[in-house]
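One-letter codes give the sequence; backbone shape is given numerically. An example follows:

. . .
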Amino acid sequence: MPLAQDRPYQIRTAASSDVLVLATFLHLFDESVVWLTSRGLSSQWGSKPLKKDPVHIKKVEKIIEQCTALLATPVKTEVSSSGPAILGICLFSSSHRSHPEVIPPASEPEFYIQLLLTSRFSPSAKGLGSAFVTEVDRIARETGIGLIRLDCYAGGEKGEEGLVRVYERMGFQKAGGLLDYYESGWLGQVMERRVDVRRG
């Protein structure tokens, strides 16, 4: 991973009330839906824009209120005609928020990454997912939190476990078996990563 001063982006903490948080979430989520659908992977998040679903937007707003938000902005100005020129967003909190009836609780204090989205179309976003995890890790060490968890899509119309492998490369391990969200066949996998609090 390039040194922070060499990256084409900078990561900052944003207040949950910052209008850019929701706008970035919606923009990057819908961008991901287009990207996934174009590759025949619509089973992950469907094929309809989230911006046109007021019910889900309300759920997103509630999650954002309970999370710490990290935004990644380009060092050099990038112009975007379809949304804010922000390269990525990461939401994390002290426990799982969106599906507590499905995700088993942790047995110790944790940071739970509720969402991690990066631009699918900007070259400047390369490596940003790993940088977000590193930043959450840094905050966890400083606050004495020894566990980071997240859950990701583990199914796929092509039988792929792409996201699971991506997070394994970031130092996460599978925690338990596959979870069937909504009993609908949408499979998720909880992943966990230990934090070396002695380095804090």
